[in-house]
Write a sequence for this structure.
């Protein structure tokens, strides 16, 4: 049995809540916290009313920070929205203030579980959460490039007409414009991806992934379902003690940043990272992400 608290119940928070209700999971209690109390009262009513027809028996309620005390996971999706033409980095200062306040309150409650952060720019906000909480870094996870990886696998699968589940490729680095795919380790079944797509096609897929959020926001104003399902995937990997590899934003001791790299998720959080063998060009790309994140981190006063 597990208790999850969602802080920030806008598009992302509620897509996560809805996806969680629609899947079998260990979550038995779901608590919603948001500045807009009236809205989440409505959300709780709406979600609870469909429980009769769902596989889960989750108790959903409006809560406050006291509820974090015995929670297993606190998921943070509070923040300012990413506007059209606004990069994730533009959101830093706005969301930094919001996150500092929230994390302080969660820690005050006596919370002993795992933080999962979705607020953008997610690698920086995960760092803020870690710093303010004083938690062991394993217990602080950002969604990182998990959504980008899901998008990548879908787009490749579509192009070559192979089930997404058989596409073994990952997006790593900053969840943002410097993210990239280390194609040298990407394969379909046991074949290297080069046997299916040429260099130009691979580059095009990579660009589509990088621009996916902008394209969706341009059309519907926000992105929500994809990230909602990624958050459920991360939740299940933690609560089921799966030792699953997901490209979450986890701590990089050497550079003192959080960044998306394949990490083993279990009941302890992001237990460890998987070493990724990179070509010279890929190493440079990763270093570029590291530099961008270090520069962004330097702008916040922690
Ligand atoms: P939204 O505006 O719909 O929701 C944000 C919610 O946060 C609102 O309901 C607001 O009332 C609440 N909020 C703000 N300050 C708060 C506070 N101090 N305490 C409690 N609640 C507070 O935005 P959204 O579309 O749900 O996006 C949320 C965040 O998730 C953004 O930062 C967005 O960029 C990010 N996001 C991340 C990913 C990813 O891959 N990590 C994907 C999509 C969106």
């Amino acid at each position: 049995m597990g208790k999850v608290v969602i802080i920030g119940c806008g598009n992302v928070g509620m897509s996560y809540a809805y996806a969680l209700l629609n899947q079998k999971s260990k979550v038995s209690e779901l608590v919603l916290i948001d500045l807009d109390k009236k809205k989440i009262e409505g959300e709780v009513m709406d979600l609870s009313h469909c429980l009769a027809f769902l596989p889960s028996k989750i108790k959903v309620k409006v809560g406050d920070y006291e509820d974090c005390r015995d929670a297993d996971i606190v998921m943070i999706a509070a923040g300012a929205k990413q506007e059209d033409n606004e990069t994730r980095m533009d959101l830093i200062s706005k969301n930094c203030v919001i996150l500092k306040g929230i994390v302080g309150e969660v820690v005050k409650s006596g919370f002993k579980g795992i933080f999962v952060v979705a607020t953008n720019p997610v690698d920086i906000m995960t760092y803020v959460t870690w710093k303010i909480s004083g938690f062991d870094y394993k217990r602080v996870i950002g969604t990182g490039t998990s959504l980008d990886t899901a998008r990548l696998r879908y787009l490749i699968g579509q192009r070559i007409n192979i089930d997404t589940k058989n596409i073994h490729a990952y997006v790593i680095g900053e969840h943002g414009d410097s993210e990239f795919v280390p194609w040298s380790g990407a394969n379909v079944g046991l074949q290297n991806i080069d046997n299916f797509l040429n260099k130009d096609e691979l580059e095009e897929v990579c660009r589509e992934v990088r621009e996916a959020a902008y394209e969706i926001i341009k059309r519907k104003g926000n992105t929500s379902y994809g990230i909602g399902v990624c958050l459920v995937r991360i939740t299940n990997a933690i609560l089921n003690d799966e030792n699953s590899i997901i490209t979450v934003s986890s701590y990089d001791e050497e550079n003192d940043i959080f960044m998306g790299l394949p990490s083993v998720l279990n009941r302890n959080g992001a237990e460890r990272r998987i070493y990724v063998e990179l070509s010279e060009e890929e190493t440079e790309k990763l270093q570029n992400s590291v530099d961008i994140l270090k520069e962004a981190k330097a702008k916040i006063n922690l």
